[in-house]
Design a protein that fits this description.
The complex is a heterotrimer of chains A (328), B (281) and C (340). Chain A is mainly α and 328 residues long. Chain A contains 14 helices and two strands, in the order ααααββαααααααααα. Chain A has a single domain, classed as MetI-like fold, CATH 1.10.3720. A two-stranded antiparallel sheet of chain A has the order 1-2. The two termini of chain A are 14 Å apart. The N terminus and C terminus of chain A are likely disordered. Chain B starts with a helix and ends with a helix. Chain B has 281 residues and is mostly helical. Chain C starts with a helix and ends with a helix. The chains are: A mainly alpha (328), B mainly alpha (281), C alpha/beta (340). Chains in contact: A-B, A-C, B-C. At the A-B interface, α1, α2, α5, α6 and α7 of A face α1, α3, α4, α5 and α6 of B.
């Protein structure tokens, strides 16, 4: 999918604007109609923020900032703290990034710089197919294929080698923070890969040619001319992937164990912000409970907006607007 | 001597890097192969005529199908399109044809940020907005949540597609005295119609697989939905509830449902690819 | 271009057709939500009732008792279902008076996943210790002492509990609060608690699924879920000191000893009697005394009357204990009081 450079537009647009002052009724109506629809985007952002804030107002009053630091999630005593979920979301996303980022960027480099031309489109198509697989189906595969394999093969192996560290300590259930991280990694591989690809493709060829002219090998060209030029954009791709990882719900809920606790071990089950909403929303019996869940939604909304804002800013440093489309 | 050694080492590094990058590319597509393999292996056996035509059976009784979930998914997609298509396409038109550079930059930015909102948040929002107000879970609520997700997607893709229409088309039309809005609708949008359809289909493919926003809006239904203000079943919802159940028969049906869903989505993507390829010929 | 127009037209046509099918039938749908505990018997009832009265269908979503209570209070469903009775506080939040209609009684069993499916005996101390996280391994003396013939592995017990708001949890924690002062003080009784240890599963289905897939797991599920999934479950020592197997007989024995107040909210955990299984509970349908839609209210009352007469006969096949005759009469009289 082509990257659209918006720099050419203003000059052309002003000609058209001058030629076609909105005159008739039809023109004015159409213009305002489309403007209203475009503003819908803004309205939606405010709608989400408003609904979440409204739904959690009592809880915010009751818990204040403590909500973000308390780790008790006790519906009986009506004590709610978001810390275990923030921890779970953070760690599972971190694990996912550690797994996915090197693979994705390396794959993107391969596809833009190193691969023979004939192989590029098929691999790109396959990655787009992976992106199209819904979260719940990946979760299904996670429960019945990945977790049993992890429990019988991968985890005991990891425990044997790294069991002395607090990260790989403790009993092995199968469902775990690590399983959650792995499945999120699978989900964000396509988006980081394809956005990185676009970024790398938009590095001007002049950079590469200059490096070749100086006698660099293929890898050196990539490293010196392309990657360092594209650093900010690549970082933006990573943050975009992070934004996606933070909000991932279904696949994670199915493999992470759904236990609100903070443990060092990656083998221990965890709970994420998105998962607790999915599991407990329809059943929150008391008002405070429901409001606490709305507040969790607000926290989740906040951090994903922040991550996405950061990502968009970084992506725009490379000079064009890049929209990952099929790979959201 | 030393310099040629150095040169050899640099060449080797380059070759190694190429190999590592290739392996990474393979690893990126490996999960696809694994998932598809299991989908076909576990799901194909449960796909039969009754799967497509029967309703779910009571708990613990073998048999039954996901007919209502499949139809429900289509119904929800239809409702989502009612919201997502007009708002998205017209919004994209505005971004491509009107507006100021600064204003549009901000709008585009917001749309991209909106694309990153987790889908479960949309479920929470629509629950508060519709389900509580009308005191009922409904297909409308589910469709609205999906429609909200579609809006920023369709907007951005439509805008890009419209921008690809050469300025000359617009200029020629305006020079002939055709009013601006007619130029946009009859010349520009018509030229880009394939792309617009593509945008819509891609967004539909994306929301067809969404589960989280439906959990507390569409709610699920073990029967046919006869009234859009009642709860409705959907493939992803049914897959989820069967997957976490203990019944082996339901697990097989979950795989089958997953296979059907993936085929639906891949078909939509294939149609998109077919449409966009023709343009180059 | 015309190809595209034709395709768009066909797509729209598809949606319109589906929409028309959707609105074609005049069948009424009653929506209910709640407990997973009685889901097997309720889904059987709803399946059978369509044959009795084809003009109405009951769509039930098993989202847990907490969900049932919440959705009926919010009036987003026509009836709720819960195995934990609604507290006075929650009842006062509802916009109208909610009636508890008991339907059947069932049992929470201790299901587990051990090689060879051995038959285990457990007492209150052991169960409380496991769920408090104090007894961590299968071959702990507190467990091994009661099961001399079984070789228990030196393996961690993977405790599984509910991650959603559950009446099954209510029954379970009610029992533990009665037999363990430490549990009562640390955790308490409710549909959703702050678990000291263990993994969460969604619904009885989720817990059963989790136990089945995790070697060394132990958790609580409703009896029929253990039976349908061929999972072994333990004999538990009751208040009379006897190890009792959860079964139709032991549930019925517990139910027979119950003192049932007028509003039908009662607990039968840790019931007296040599033959009583200690972790039983009744399950209720939650309905408004004043129905807001008279057509739906009429159908609901008709269904309840059918369920409490014909429906009860099906309970035994699924190992749920039907209500004793005198209780049934009292409940039917209460159903008569529902106004629509």
């Amino acid at each position: 999918m082509p990257v659209v450079a918006s720099s050419a537009k203003p000059a052309v647009r002003s000609i058209i604007d001058r030629m076609a002052r909105p005159s008739g009724v039809g023109d004015r109506v159409f213009k305002w109609l489309t403007l209203a629809m475009a503003l819908a985007v803004v309205a939606l952002v405010f709608l989400v923020g408003w609904q979440l804030a409204r739904g959690s107002s009592l809880a915010i009053q009751k818990f204040g900032f403590h909500f973000l630091e308390t780790s008790t999630w006790d519906p009986v005593a009506e004590q709610f703290g978001a810390l275990p979920f923030i921890y779970g979301t953070a760690i599972s996303s971190l694990v996912a990034l550690i797994i996915a980022v090197p693979l994705s960027i390396a794959a993107a480099v391969y596809l833009t710089e190193l691969a023979p031309i004939w192989i590029r489109q098929p691999i790109v198509s396959l990655i787009e197919m992976l992106a199209a697989i819904p979260s719940v189906i990946l979760g299904l595969w996670g429960i019945f294929v990945m977790i049993p394999w992890l429990r019988t093969h991968a985890f005991p192996f990891l425990k044997k080698i790294f069991g002395w560290t607090p990260l790989f300590d403790g009993p092995i259930y199968g469902v775990s923070m690590l399983a959650g991280g792995i499945i999120i990694a699978v989900m964000i591989l396509p988006i980081i890969t394809s956005v990185s690809r676009e970024i790398l493709r938009s590095v001007p060829n002049l950079q590469r040619e200059a490096a070749y002219a100086l006698g660099a090998t293929r890898w050196e060209v990539t490293r010196i001319a392309v990657l360092s030029y594209a650093k900010k954009g690549l970082f933006g791709a990573v943050v975009l992937g992070l934004g996606r990882a933070l909000g991932e719900t279904m696949a994670v809920t199915m493999v992470i164990g759904n236990t609100p606790q903070i443990r060092a071990s990656l083998f221990a089950p965890g709970y994420t912000l998105a998962s607790v909403i999915a599991n407990e929303f329809t059943e929150a019996t008391t008002d405070v409970y429901l409001q606490a869940l709305f507040e969790i939604g607000l926290v989740l909304f906040g951090i994903t907006i922040f991550a996405n804002l950061l990502a968009q800013l970084l992506l725009r440093t490379i000079g064009s607007t890049i929209t990952p489309r099929a790979v959201q | 001597m030393k310099s040629s050694h150095k040169h050899l080492w640099r060449k080797t590094k380059s070759a190694c890097a190429a190999v590592i990058a290739f392996v990474c590319a393979l690893l990126v597509i490996a999960p696809l192969a694994l998932v598809l393999f299991h989908l076909i292996r576990s799901g194909a056996s449960a796909i039969n005529w009754s799967f497509f035509t029967e309703l779910p059976k009571p708990v613990g009784v073998a048999g039954g199908g996901m007919a209502n979930a499949i139809v429900g998914s289509f119904q929800l997609l239809g409702l989502a399109a009612l919201v997502g298509v007009p708002v998205g396409v017209l919004g994209g038109v505005y971004l491509a044809e009107y507006g100021t550079a600064r204003g549009n930059f901000a709008l585009r930015f917001m749309a991209d940020v909106l694309n990153g909102v987790p889908s479960i948040i949309w479920g929470v929002v629509v629950y508060g907005l519709i389900v509580l107000r009308f005191k009922s879970f409904s297909a409308y609520a589910g469709g609205l949540a999906l429609g909200f997700i579609m809006v920023p997607l369709v907007t951005r893709t439509t805008e890009e597609v419209l921008l690809l229409v050469p300025a000359g088309y617009r200029e020629a039309s305006l020079a002939l005295g055709i009013s601006r809005w007619k130029t946009i609708v009859h010349i520009v949008m018509k030229t880009a119609s394939k792309g617009i359809v593509t945008a819509i289909l891609l967004a539909l493919a994306r929301v067809a697989g969404e589960t989280a926003p439906l959990l507390f809006t569409a709610f699920g239904n073990r029967f046919w939905n006869h009234n859009l203000s009642e709860p409705i079943s959907a493939l992803p919802l049914q897959i989820f509830s069967y997957a976490i159940s203990p019944y082996d028969d339901w697990h097989r049906q979950a795989w089958a449902g997953a296979l059907v869903l993936v085929v639906m989505i891949f078909l939509l993507n294939l149609v998109v690819r077919f449409l966009t390829r023709e343009r180059m010929a | 271009m015309t190809k595209i127009h034709r395709m768009i037209g066909r797509f729209l046509g598809l949606f319109v057709v589906f929409g028309l099918i959707a609105t074609a039938s005049a069948q009424m749908t009653m929506n209910g939500a709640g407990a997973t505990f009685p889901y097997p018997i309720y889904s059987k009832w709803f399946d059978e009732y369509v044959k009795v009265d084809p003009s109405v269908r009951f769509n039930y979503q098993s989202i847990g008792s907490g969900g049932g209570q919440k959705q009926i209070t919010a009036q987003t469903v026509d009836f709720g279902a819960s195995d934990g009775p609604m507290s006075d506080e929650n009842l006062s939040k509802a916009p109208g008076k909610i009636l508890h209609i008991p339907t059947v009684a069932g049992a929470d069993v201790v299901a587990y996943n051990l090689p060879g499916d051995p038959a285990l005996k457990l007492d209150a101390d052991a169960i409380a210790g496991i769920f408090l996280g104090q007894i961590k391994k299968w071959n702990d003396p507190k467990i091994a002492g009661q099961n001399p013939e079984v070789t228990l592995p030196d393996q961690e017990i993977v405790v599984v509990h509910r991650s959603d708001g559950s009446g099954t949890t209510y029954i379970w924690t009610d029992y533990l609060s009665k037999v363990s002062a430490e549990w009562k003080q640390k955790v308490g009784t409710n549909t959703s608690v702050n678990w000291p240890t263990g993994l969460g599963g969604k619904g009885n289905e989720g817990v059963a699924g989790q136990i089945k897939q995790t070697p060394g797991a132990l958790g609580y599920v409703e009896l029929i879920y253990a039976i349908q999934n061929k999972m072994p479950y333990a004999d538990v020592k009751n208040s009379a000191g006897k190890f009792v197997k959860p079964s139709l007989e032991s549930i019925t024995a517990a139910l027979a000893t119950a003192q049932i107040p007028d509003d039908f909210r009662f607990s039968i955990t840790n019931a007296p009697g040599a033959g009583s299984y200690p972790m039983c509970g009744a399950t209720w349908l939650l309905v408004y005394e004043q129905q807001k839609d008279s057509a739906k209210g009429k159908k609901l009352v008709e269904f309840l009357e059918w369920a409490l007469t014909k429906g009860e006969e099906m309970a035994k096949d699924l190992d749920y204990a039907p209500l004793p005759a005198e209780l049934r009469e009292r409940v039917l009289k209460r159903v008569d009081e529902i106004k629509f």
